Structure prediction request, 1011 residues.
Amino acid sequence: MKSKLLLIVLSLCTSFAFAQSIDVTGTVVDGSGLSLPGVNVKVKSSSQSTTTDFDGSFKLTGVPKGSAVIFSYIGYKTQEVAVSGTKITVKLIEDAKSLDEVVVIGYGTQKKREVTGSVSVVDSKTIDLIRPTRIEQALQGTVTGVNVTTQSGAPGAPLDIRIRGIATNGQNAPTAIIDGYVGDFGLLNPNDIESITVLKDAQAAIYGTIGANGIILITTKTGKKNTQTKVSFNSSVGFQETSRKLPTLNATEYALLLNESYANGGKPLPYPNVSGLGKGTDWQDEVFQMAPIVNNDLSISGGSDKITYSISGSHLDQEGIVGGDKSGFLKNTARLALGADLSSKIKLKSNVIYTYFTRKTLNENGLGSVLFNALNVPATLTPKDANGNFTLVPNTTGLGNEIINPLAQIANTYNDYNYKKLNGNFGLDYKIFKGFTLTGSIGFNTSNSESKTFAPLISYGGKVFDVQRSSVTQGAVNDNDYSFDLFGTYVTKIADAHNITGTIGTTIFKTWGNGLSATGFDVPNNSWEFADISLTKGVSATLTNSSYVYDQRRLSYFARLQYDYKEKYLVSGMIRRDASTKFGPGNKVGYFPSVTGGWIVSKEDFFGTPKFINFLKLRGSYGTLGNDQIGDYRYLGTLSGEATYVFDGTLVNGVATGAVPNPDVKWEEARKLDVGLDMRILNDKVSIVADYFSDTRKDLLIGNIPVSGINGTGAPGSGSPTINAGSVKNSGFEFAIDYKENFSDSFSMNVAYNVTFIKNKVLEVNNGTGFLEAGGFGVGQPAPARMEIGKPMGYFYGYKTDGIFQNQAEVDAHPSQLALGANAAPGDLRFVDVNGDGVIDTKDKTNIGDPIPAATMGFNLQLNYKNVDFAVYTFASVGNDMVRNYERTLSDANRIDYVLDRWTGEGSTNSTPRVTTGATSNNVFSNYFVEDASYLRIQNVQLGYSLNPSVAQKVGITKLRLYAGVNNLYTFTKYQGYDPGASNGAPIGGGIDYGFYPTPRTYLMGLNINF
Prediction:
């Protein structure tokens, strides 16, 4: 009886216990209500866990009622929920800048809270909001210390990235590392990118000789384990227009001004009767047009317990706002990323990308470019004559022999460029024993390009662009490289206080390729259709083909040791040894050490419980990095020059000695110092990052060294030696603040501001003259930009002005300006006698401008209200000057309308000189042509609406978002040219405006949809 009673009691207790264990299902969503796949769901104090599926759903069986379930996901705050029913919905709060976020630092990762270098990250959410055509645009205004300038607004034109200023007279571009291998990230599909990490200080020393200009680490998207297949489609269409037109003179204004100019020069009036001329032709309206842009991409991703995958493709088709399809760009990409757990110890990862693009270009950014002609052709001329032919611009002294009809120029421009590239990597991670992982990977780039340019037989009326004999030039280039990385990483923890991570490895890098170019004459039918060398039969007396080959190699070893004590005191030391074929036997090897350290003050006991300050870290770094961006084999004498020899009375094309060798040439060396702090306040709502930095570049690789002409350095293909003879210092301060607030479940806001101050100073130029010069101004004038000791890199070197001579008495009282080309007269520019010797001559040239901005900054705002999102991104550059060089200084060329405020008599103006056909010195390079190019640009504005998830999911859609946006909405500036933010990329002469193709204003409508 007792046993039966005991059995009944036990059965009741068991039944009661089972009654208190329930099955729980639910959904996890983000702040906007969209499902979150891959969220970790764990029963507290239990080993039971799962992850959400593609729809954000999960299921837990046998959960004791009242238990707590923990939800955690990277980028979101961990949340704990008590189980009170069988179904729950959890909304995770975004924490995109979580201190536990993992940051890529090169050959490894690190928690953001433990990073001791100056590192900035741009995530995929920011990229989605900016919607850049080229991924480099996502860095402008979002990352401190990074300045992105455009070489042209033409479709497919490259962008220039500068990290913490211009430090060398040569190559200043940072090195991009895509998933571990060197690559061109400008060609990537922006929607394939998970994150962009910028290493700005000695943290980049792990990359040695390629790290001096900074490192940009690109992590592409991969599938996630245990998630259903996710299909994402993004599409946008829009149109582009010029963001600016310059106010040129209309026909009547031009004729009146020209009459005045001729009268002041003592010549007959060219337009005795100006009535009826009206406004004439606006040549900018003729060349500018609305241009379409279409961008589509599709991705499929997912994963199981063992395998992850991501497949994507994209298509971009963009026409130019000048010339339409004559300056068009079309790009297609395809990508496949696979990951597999081959065993419990071995993991495979792979990523392969195929890129194809075709690009057509017009003559731009220089004397004789399409926009140069559109600005300088008189408005009195019509696009076509009475017979329907393009109007010829008169070949007169007043219009020169290079100004032609821009519409005829566009119509007779024929070229094509096709580029194919395959790049990617394959890697294995092998966990040899606990804490130690061996990683091996192979990265590669292989590309082939073909180009064709056709010059038809044509006459522009006796201009320099006349073609007397049709020709076609074709080229083919093959570029290849591969890298093999093998490194081991050991992670251990001693006594729950000492955390140690050690990395040691080697890298082998090789790049090789070849190119061939040839020209054929007398194209059949003078037609693009028959423009192929195989069809040309013309013979030329000069060399019509050229070719080259190259082969470079680098062998590297590196090591890094990271240590922290209780995640409070942090230190990291690294060293890299590089050996390169670019330098001779005595300088082939370089060593690049660095050390970084940090102190998380907020973890100290004396700090107490965080109240106002939630996190505070002080950090510093110092290290040496290298730069080897020069031509190959500069330490050897090579037969790379051109020469013509006479054999038996016949001229024969041959070869000659190339550039004079320098066996002592070696690496540039960058010594980088950084001191910074990271802080969070007000319950982690406000993040602050501040850095002081100093970068001293030594042993600059300088060419064009003055040597005796007896060496033959003036011959084609030859040149002066390259030597290490310069030093430049960049120092400055970076500050970034980010405020993030969730006011309610419906409304959230993120406001961010960043600013960078930079001072650039040249410390040394030991090339024999004490300076380097480059750039161009006008026709036949000396180079206007210099690199010189004590001055900023590329400063403008010319004459300083002091107003306008108002009368002859002022002219007589002033030092003579005859040495500049002509005697001064009332109405001419008055130049300053800088050295006070009583005469104005070349000794009075001085610093008249700096192309490097004193400060750059970004202000960005994001708002989310229920299903509506709004974002605006801005960028500002302050203190940079630019040279106005897009006007031809010929008497009959058209002018910008500021000339209407010219000097016409005593007291009329003290800023703009008179107009005349007579000789003056007004056109010599002076600060009259240098303008403040500071600007504030609204880079991106976007408004989006997401369909309610509960409605979308009923038709099998997890996300449906519609948006409209404008890129390059407006630029506030006093600069008179097309684009104050443009540059030709040159460190010396980069701030000279030859008539930049303006960056277009783009209106977009788009769709984001996930299945």
In short: DSSP finds eight helices and 51 strands in the chain. The two ends are 63 Å apart (CA to CA).
